[in-house]
Design a protein that fits this description.
The complex is a heterodimer of chains A (739) and B (315). By secondary structure, chain A is mainly beta. Helix content of chain A is 7%, strand content 55%. Classes of the chains: A mainly beta (739), B mainly beta (315). The interface between A and B is large, with 73 and 82 residues.
Chain lengths: 739, 315
């Protein structure tokens, strides 16, 4: 009997006692020079398998470390590794903060090791994490741009050079969730989408999910771009100035008081002539954007509290009274708080208000009508991470937002029309991450509470998200992912427009089902050689519900839009090779996308069969890089014009004769998107030299867009035959100075 | 420079060669036909012209109409063949073309309600097209509360017109006209004014009238030959405002009669008319211009409509 009691004691009680003795090691990892926190750093208990990585706020927690002496190391790309010896004693959690000195980084380190981003990429099939170095590695078109850089990732395509808008695995442009410090941004583009409204220098890290993304991201079908901004330096005021052919910008940051930093950045256009070179069209375009952020340390919670404001504006004002004027305004204000609220519960919460307004003033134009679109949204989102003894992680969160959307236009009937709605977007989620031997699992559920209550949704509001990763051999992993996604807001535009510069957001009408997609992804990745890493993924995206033009609409009793379906599938390969002399990054995507609505199946305008991005970076001298980027893409679909006729409107037929009518020229179109544009290809080259004249550091770059001046078709005007090509041979230079 | 350097340069510059591109697909010349049969006129027309392919891209480069002359145009109903004669008619819009319009005309020919007609156009030069249409059967129309004219009922009561339409009717339109006469010197002049269905008044002097438009039937089609009724409401306020307007223009005015016209439209004309006129949907946010045609081998529309009327004397 006594023996049995001892057995029970050892089996049940002893582990509890031991765990009770174990303590957590936690802290933050920061840049030793600037004090800025470092996300995705690796923290290891040397000599053990214990460890973790810092989150986007630089916080890490290693649970339940038994008493003893340990060496804890912290490492991150671009930083020297630091190791601390600590003595763990039963009782209070041990706080170990790291300050890592930065070091020069070679691109090969980024593309080959990828260790610092392991926590995310280890399980998920479709995630890429970019920091500023990744963004700068891509040859720029006039200036660095985060959205232009992510276009080199597999599965992401753009319909033109002069457009940062992107399409992910067959998803439409409005299916991308853009977050800046947790604030949803509705129009992230400047100037026809030529580049994004986010100055790449304010972005610390960018997570890009191209599919099957985790449950804390809601409301979009295809992808997530989650950007986290920098904080100001904590030790001294610093500044950065940049001038290029297009714009000038100034960034200042520094400490305000103990534990409080500030950062401000402003950018303004300089030369509209550049646009003339871009588009072969005189565009009297001007833009500006600005960002302000104040961050304070939240003491023992290891957290931060910050307030930030972002604004941008674009104006396109034509001198001709017959040409319309356009203006776009985007703004966001947010308050972010993060930190431990209990020993093992880390919370990240955001309260925000954003706004977007675009206006088209037709002036005396006969071709276009006045229109405006507006989105104002107030919301709050919070996510909690719960660390467990077993090293499993639980995540919980919710999001409430209250968007108001408004779209005013003069419709085809000639009537001014305003479509306005205010509603609630509400999501709640839970997620569990575990490791079982060779298997890593990330399983979650997102509930679209807004649809559940407002639309009377059923089971479809439940959005499961599953990511599994299995270690096969050596460093090879097999991965599978599944996710269901719902979207309740869409943009509307004329599908027959060649370029859409006026996308209006609307709420999906109540009589239609929300847009819904299921993602299935399978992947295999590993290193063929120490210097050669590969990743292969196949995806299938089932659009159970899309909102599409009702092509059978005849009159006011027929809805403008109906539910359709679609599918996208394809294969992606990512091959990365790195040596001290040269880095090569190759991303290839083979994809098919089709949409079916009203009995018609067609390829959407962004369906591209083949897309290849080849990025080669030579490092001939220290501080000197020569980069080549070659992109090849098969032609996008378009609808041919097969003739014209003078179409009579018969407007007066009930109150007079119609026979004398002349009618207006009407384009006879061929099969919808049945033809293809020519193959797109372009070579960009860039040479950058980094210099240091203490206390100033800077870089000078010479960049050539479209080295061999290939004329890639951007769009054509059916009626005038005016063909606009994408970027021609276009040399630019940049100078950046930082002190 | 070494040979392989030359080769590399050649490769780079050959990559810059442009691929030929045109947005135009293969052009096929087709006939365009517009013909709306009606029982309200004793002359029926067929507008006949061609598609065109501008030399470059701009359709406005084409400065002349594309008429088709010498075509054999006929409409067949049962065993009857009605042949159309080529003629010229005045162009009402001369902004783009100034010459008269070539139109084929059949006179005397009044479309018969309830009959089916087949159109045939044969041009030696430009090929042939055909189409067919069923003219809706006769309906009838009434003013449900005509007693309003005679001082009965509430003075706020709207006029309600009821139209009885046939099963093969897709859309209908009820119009309401007022015949009046006013003194001009020693003579009385007769005029007709269409009554609005609604009026919106902005301030003291600004008002906007809304007139009935072609709408889709809401009643079930029923069996062939059956009748179903639809109604159109004409606001009393709009009526009063119209009378005020007329009274302001003509102080000595007296009402002569009220005319109601019911127009029944078959599906082809209904569809074409709506698509060519912004879906007749003031609430739509669509910006595209979809096409539709029931002309086999060509473009345009062969449609039909039937008018029935009722008259209420107010003398």
């Amino acid at each position: 009997m006594l023996h049995c009691v001892r057995v029970v004691f050892f089996i049940l009680i002893l582990p509890i006692v031991l765990v009770a003795q174990a303590v957590d090691i936690r802290g933050v990892v920061a840049d030793s020079a600037t004090g800025e926190r470092i996300p995705f750093a690796n923290i290891m208990v040397v000599g053990t398998t214990r460890g973790g990585s810092s989150n986007l706020q630089g916080f890490y927690l290693i649970p339940s470390v038994y008493p003893g002496r340990y060496q804890i190391s912290a490492s991150s790309i671009g930083y020297e590794t630091r190791t601390k010896t600590v003595s763990v004693q039963a009782g209070q959690p041990l706080v170990v903060n790291f300050q890592l000195p930065s070091k020069p980084v070679e691109f090969s380190e980024v593309i080959i090791t990828d260790k610092a981003k392991r926590e995310l990429t280890e399980i998920h099939t479709s995630v890429h994490v970019l920091d500023q170095r990744d963004i700068r590695a891509v040859p720029m078109a006039v200036q660095e741009d985060v959205f232009r850089s992510i276009r080199i990732l597999p599965g992401i395509i753009s319909t033109s050079d002069v457009n940062s808008q992107f399409y992910v695995r067959g998803g439409a442009g409005d299916q991308n969730l853009i977050l800046l410090d947790g604030m949803r941004i509705y129009n992230p583009y400047h100037a026809f989408g030529i580049f994004s409204i986010f100055d790449s220098d304010i972005i610390k890290a960018t997570e890009v999910y191209t599919g099957a993304f985790p449950p804390e991201f809601s409301g979009r079908l295809s992808s997530v771009v989650n950007m986290t901004t920098r904080t100001g330096r904590s030790n001294a005021v610093s500044g950065r100035a940049n001038i290029n052919f297009l714009s000038t910008k100034l960034q200042l940051d520094g400490p305000a008081m103990e534990g409080v930093t500030w950062l401000m950045s402003a950018r303004k256009s300089l030369f509209s002539q550049t646009f003339k070179n871009f588009l072969n069209k005189d565009l009297p375009l001007s833009f500006y954007d600005g960002f302000v952020k104040v961050t304070g340390e939240a003491g023992e919670s290891h957290g931060t509290i910050s307030g930030q404001a972002f604004f941008s504006g674009d104006n396109l004002r034509s001198a001709s009274p017959n040409e319309p004027d356009y203006s776009w305004r985007t703004g966001a204000v947010g308050f972010v708080a993060s930190g431990l609220i209990q020993d093992r519960v880390y919370v990240h919460a955001v309260g925000f208000e954003n706004s977007f307004k675009a206006t088209r003033d037709a002036k005396q134009s006969k071709e276009v009508t006045p229109a405006s679109t507006r989105v104002v949204e107030t919301g709050v989102r919070a996510n909690a991470t719960f660390y467990t003894d077993s090293r499993d992680l639980y995540f919980f969160g919710f999001e409430f937002s209250f968007p108001t959307v408004e779209y005013s236009l003069v419709n085809n009937y000639g009537v001014p029309r305003t479509l306005s709605s205010s509603f609630v977007e509400s999501y709640t989620w839970a997620r569990y991450q575990t490791s079982q031997g060779r298997l890593l699992a990330d399983i979650g559920l997102n509930l679209d509470m807004g649809s559940l209550f407002a639309r009377g949704g059923g089971f479809e509001v439940v959005q499961p998200r599953v990511n599994l990763s299995y270690s096969l051999w050596d460093n090879w992993k097999g991965k599978v992912s599944y996710g269901r996604f719902i979207q309740n807001m869409i943009t509307v535009n004329n599908e027959d427009d060649v370029i859409t510069i006026f996308d209006a957001w609307i709420r999906i009408p109540d009589e239609l089902e929300s847009e819904q997609a299921d993602h299935y992804v399978i992947g295999l990745e590993g290193n063929l050689l120490r210097t050669l890493s590969t990743s292969f993924q196949a995806y299938y995206k089932d659009y159970n519900s899309l909102v599409i033009y009702n092509r059978d609409k005849v009159d006011a009793l027929d809805p403008d839009y109906i539910n359709g379906t679609g599918e996208a599938y394809g294969f992606e390969a990512l091959i990365r090779f790195g040596t001290p002399l040269v880095d090569i990054y190759t991303a290839y995507t083979l994809g098919w996308t089709s949409i079916t609505a009203g009995g018609l199946t067609y390829y959407p305008r962004y369906d591209r069969r083949h897309n290849l991005n080849l990025l080669t970076i030579f490092h001939p001298l220290e501080g000197f890089d020569v980069t080549f980027r070659w992109e090849v893409g098969s032609g996008f679909p378009f609808t041919q014009t097969i003739g014209y006729y003078d179409r009579l409107s018969l407007t007066n037929i009930f109150r007079g004769p119609y026979v004398g009518e002349t009618g207006k020229p009407y384009s006879i179109l061929g099969g919808k998107n049945a033809a293809r544009l020519p193959t797109y290809h372009r070579l960009d080259a860039s040479a950058t030299y980094r210099f240091s004249l203490d206390p100033i550091v800077g870089s000078f770059g010479v960049h050539i867009v479209n080295v061999y001046n290939h004329r890639n078709v951007f769009y054509f005007d059916r009626k005038t035959g005016q063909q606009i090509n994408m970027l021609p041979f276009f040399p630019t230079a940049t100078l950046s100075i930082e002190y | 420079m070494k040979p392989y350097a030359y080769l590399a340069l050649c490769l780079v510059y050959s990559a810059g060669c442009d691929d030929p591109f045109t947005p135009k697909g293969p052009y096929q010349e087709r006939l365009v036909v517009y013909s709306i049969l009606t029982n309200a006129a004793d002359t029926q027309y067929v507008r006949l012209f061609r598609t065109y392919d501008p030399p470059r891209y701009d359709p406005y480069e084409v400065l002349f109409d594309q008429p088709v002359r010498g075509a054999d145009v006929s409409v067949t109903e049962g065993g009857n063949v009605i042949r159309y004669q080529e003629g010229l008619t005045k162009r009402t819009e001369t902004g783009r073309y100034r010459d008269d319009i070539v139109a084929y005309r059949a006179f005397p020919f009044r479309a018969q309600p309830g009959k089916s007609y087949a159109l045939s156009v044969v041009s030696q030069q430009f090929g042939s097209v055909s189409s067919s249409v069923s003219v809706p059967g006769s309906g009838w129309v009434e003013l449900v509360n005509s007693y309003i004219f005679f001082g009965q009922g509430s003075d706020k009561e709207d006029f309600v017109a009821r139209g009885y339409i046939r099963a093969d009717t897709r859309g209908f339109l009820i119009r309401f006209y007022l015949d009046y006469e006013f003194a001009e010197g020693s003579t009385w002049v007769q005029r007709r004014e269409e009554m609005a269905s609604r009026v919106s008044i902005y301030g003291d002097n600004l008002k906007s009238y809304e007139y009935p438009k072609l709408v889709r039937r809401t009643s079930p089609a029923g069996s062939p030959g059956s009748l179903a009724y639809e109604r159109t409401v004409f606001s009393r306020e709009a009526y009063k405002e119209k009378l005020n307007d007329l009274g302001a223009k003509h102080p000595h005015l007296r009402l002569v009669g009220a005319l109601l016209i019911l127009t029944q439209v078959e599906p082809s004309l209904y569809t074409y008319y709506n698509l060519a006129n912004g879906f007749q949907d003031e609430y739509s946010i669509r910006q595209d211009l979809p096409d539709w045609s029931n002309i086999k081998g060509g473009y345009g529309v062969f449609g039909a409509m039937v008018e029935d009327s009722a008259y209420i004397s107010l003398r």
